[in-house]
Amino acid sequence: MKGICSNSPTRCRLAYSLKATQGMDGDCPECGSSLVAVDNEARPITLKQYHRVLLGLLLLLLMLNLISIYWFFVL
Ligand SMILES: [Zn+2]
User: Which residues surround ligand 1, an ion (CB under 5 A)?
Assistant: First the structure.
């Protein structure tokens, strides 16, 4: 698991640097404190939302296209 050391910055070098490190079993390799998971879920969620918006726009465009084709052939 990758995370930032939860220990006090004055006690641990890795907590002071705020650098995400890969620790064994979620523990800091420097001091042994538990690591706080880095928020790396935020990007895929926004990407998913972006795809949903894109899909919605595409469907809207397709519907407008179908309506215009319908009008073209019927009228
Ligand atoms: Zn630490």
Answer: 5, 7, 12, 14, 28, 30-31, 33
**What is the Å distance from ligand 1's center to 43 Cα?**
26
**pTM of this prediction exceeds 0.70:** no
Cα 38 to averaged position of ligand 1 atoms, centre (Å): 14
46-to-2, 43, 58, 60 alpha-carbon distances in Å = 21, 5, 18, 21
Q: Which tens digits make up the pLDDT trace of 14-41?
A: 888 888 888 778 899 889 999 888 765 5
Domain count of the fold of the chain: 1
Domain that holds residue 12: 2-74
